[in-house]
Every structure is written in C-alpha cells, then in structure tokens.
Amino acid sequence: MVEFTGPYGDFYIRDTSRDIIFIAGGSGMAPIKSMLEMLTERKSQRRIAFFFGARCKDDLYLTDYLYEFESKLTDYQYHPILSQPCEEDEWQGKTGYITPYLKEVIKDSANTEAYLCGSPGMINAMVKGLKEFGISENNIFYDSFS
After folding, report:
1. Domains in the chain: how many in total?
2. pLDDT at res. 3
C-alpha cells in the first residue's frame, strides 16, 4: 500500500488582484518558477516583478526561460541582480542588494503582495525592506531555508 499526503505550509499565490513582487536567491527560484508557470497557465493579468539575487553571473540560471515570461504574462519583469559580479562577468545589469530596486516596481504598496524564497538572512532583510516601502506584513509571504 502506498500512502500520500499533500503539501503543508502557506507558501502559495493568494487569489487576489494585487501586484506581485517575487524575490528569490539560489534554489529559492524553484517555487517562484512554479508560481510563474501557474500564473501563466491561468492567464493572470496581475503586475509581476521577479527579483533574483545571485553573487556572480555563474550563479544565474534559467535566465532565458525567466525572460520568456515577459511575452507570456501581461505585465511581468525579470530583474537579475548580482551582489558581487566578477570582472570577467562583464555584467551590465543591476548590482548590489535588491532593496534599493524595489522602489522601481512598487506602484501602490497597499495593493502589493510579496513572495520570498531563500536564506533566513535574505528573507529577514527583504521583509524589513518591503515594510519600509509600505508593504503590509500581512501581504508578505515567504519560505525560508538554510
């Protein structure tokens, strides 16, 4: 006999019309990728921004795939950000921490949800930053792992 149990937890997309900010680092991309695929399948009209933090260019993955959502979703932007790009990366994109870039995508903080997945340190910093930009803690959801 084989027995299955369902997933437990509360890291899932809420059924609202709020704007969405996804923030992930490392393997934290996996649940965000699944959420993007689900939103695409449901033809979501929500404003969506995905910030993916990595140390250097070699730590980025699925980049082309994540940019493809820009043509599949009505209002989606992918923002890879490198904290410590190497000279050989020849990186022309965003650098440093994610927090300063949040102001570019938050149009209405009362109408925004955030979904975070990554290390406890990243989660704590992002929750603090999102709250400083006026996002209610009730609209910040995360899956923290070490």
Report:
1. 1
2. 78
Residue 52 · residue 78 · CB < 8 Å: yes
Amino acid, res. 103: K
Strands 19-25 and 112-118: parallel
Q: Give CA–CA dist 104/31, Å, rounded.
A: 24
With both helix axes pointing from N to C terminus, report the angle between 29-41 and 63-72 in degrees, rounded to the nearest 10.
Answer: 30
pTM above 0.90, yes or no: yes
Quote the tokens at residue 90.
Answer: 């020849």
**How do strand 75-82 and strand 112-118 relate by DSSP bridges?**
unpaired
The answer to whether the beta carbons of residues 60 and 54 sit under 8 Å apart is: yes
Backbone phi, psi, residue 13, to 5°: -70, 130
Whether 12 is in a domain gets the answer no
Query: Which residues span the domain enclosing 30?
Result: 19-144
pLDDT at site 101: 96
